[in-house]
Design a protein that fits this description.
Chain lengths: 257, 14
Amino acid sequence: MFEARVAQAEILKKILDSVRELVEQGNLDCSGTGISLQAMDSSHVSLVALLLKSEGFERYRCDRSINLGINMQSLGKIVKTAGNHDAITLSSEDKGDVLGLMFESTEQDKVSNYEIKLMDVDAEQLAIPVAEYSVCVRMPSAEFARITRDLSTIGDSVLISCTKDGVQFSTTGDTGSGSIVLRQSSSVDDEKKAVVIEVQEPISLSFATKFLVQFSKSAALNESVTLNLGDGVPLMVEYPMKEMGYVRFYLAPKLSN
Amino acid sequence: VCRQIQLKQYFGQE
């Protein structure tokens, strides 16, 4: 038996919104420690790694580990019908063929029950090694969204160059070029609004703009985002979710021939 | 000219 209850539907809505455009279907791996999902986009260039820790749920029970193959679009559509403050309980029998969803309003005067058919998802599981990153940039997630959106009007690749002085995002396209530099915040009252740049080694790497734009749509998950870059490893973009876990995106670079 | 690398070149299969 698997059962997981979140106090407020809002967080699940935000999580599903952030992954469902990138990932059509995936396996929710449910175990005693929580729920995880690892899925690549269809071109195998980017990967979503989601972790929802058991302690982040109001109630959590998973007697034996199970894989729930889910169409993320279908799940997203159903969860969207819940009120933001509704409690949501996910459930599945050990050998069941459906994922049950129960929404309960805060007043307990409305209860909705849905079932989604499970599917066989033949997803390749990749082993993600723990990487040593040369650069870690923490910045407001809204700023990251703005920068990727603004540069996407010009070019399909963004070069991210980072030194101790700042991080530069630049692009070139048929119509011209553009670049945006962010400098480390000198003094900030609100830590969430700070730009913090940690540099072991300066680095410059190119990435496909369209994926950065996709990732940056997760801004609702956290006011801050971290970009982790290293030579010979994919970019890792992380949106932490307090006690709940995280959504991480990995993106392979574009290399010059 | 840039070439898009795939993730498999970095991450092994489990």
